[in-house]
Amino acid sequence: MSLKSFHLVFLVASVVLALFLAAFGFDQYRQSGSQAALLGAISSALAAVTLVIYGRYFLRKLRHISYL
Fold first, then answer.
1. Contact 4, 65 (CB under 8 A)
2. Which of 2, 6, 10, 41 fits 26 for a cystine, CB–CB 3.0-4.6 Å?
């Protein structure tokens, strides 16, 4: 597995984790009304969006390098 492939797998795992944490935070906010849960959910959602933007940048920058 190349460094590029590993980077993409790690990036996808990070996006999935951030989305899970955002959903969990929004659920906790809905149940308890905690402002900390809402802040955590929004932060996680922004992190997921930022990671997707970075992933697109990474793929464009290294498109000439193979995945093997």
1. yes
2. 41
